[in-house]
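Tokens in:
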């Protein structure tokens, strides 16, 4: 009977050790998930910044196109005006 109790104590200690290892594993997984979440938030923030910059570039490109069209119109008007003058 003493031997059975001794074996039961050994088995109980092994179970406790396994539970402790499992707990450490779960803590490690939780930490990794937390780190992944932080990284995902940073990526989302970076994507939002890129999107804002892309919108600003698109707006500038539109403005530049409008100004180039206006300059072309002015140039054509000047050309037309100069053809009216003969030397």
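Residues out:
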């Amino acid at each position: 009977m003493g031997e059975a109790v001794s074996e039961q104590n050994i088995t109980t200690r092994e179970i406790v050790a396994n539970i402790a290892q499992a707990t450490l594993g779960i803590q490690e997984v939780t930490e990794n998930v937390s780190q992944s979440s932080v990284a995902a938030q940073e990526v989302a923030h970076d994507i939002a910044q890129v999107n804002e910059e892309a919108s600003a570039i698109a707006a500038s490109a539109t403005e530049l196109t409008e100004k180039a069209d206006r300059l072309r119109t002015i140039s054509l008007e000047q050309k037309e005006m100069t053809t009216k003058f003969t030397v």
